[in-house]
Amino acid sequence: xxxxxxxxxxxxxxxxxxxxxxxxxxxxxxxxxxxxxxxxxxxxxxxxxxxxxxxxxxxxxxxxxxxxxxxxxxxxxxxxxxxxxxxxxxxxxxxxxx
Length: 98
What we know:
Layout: H1 8-18, H2 26-34, H3 39-46, H4 54-86
Helix pairs in contact: 1-3
């Protein structure tokens, strides 16, 4: 968001509203600093009040896993549609083999 031209205040407001899934690692902080992210934005990412609680993190992880499965299923369906267009009646297994 920062590189996309969003205003810093809007990004900090989103962090406060939505929170971040986990504590910012030292490596991530260093990377953000090298990228020119402001100290105020990094502070918002590090603020414990902006980090998901344990229960929220569990719910977030479950949601992310479900989204990942749906995405993989969508990709598999898309590959199958392409295969059907190229060779009607073909079936691609989940490992990509016919």
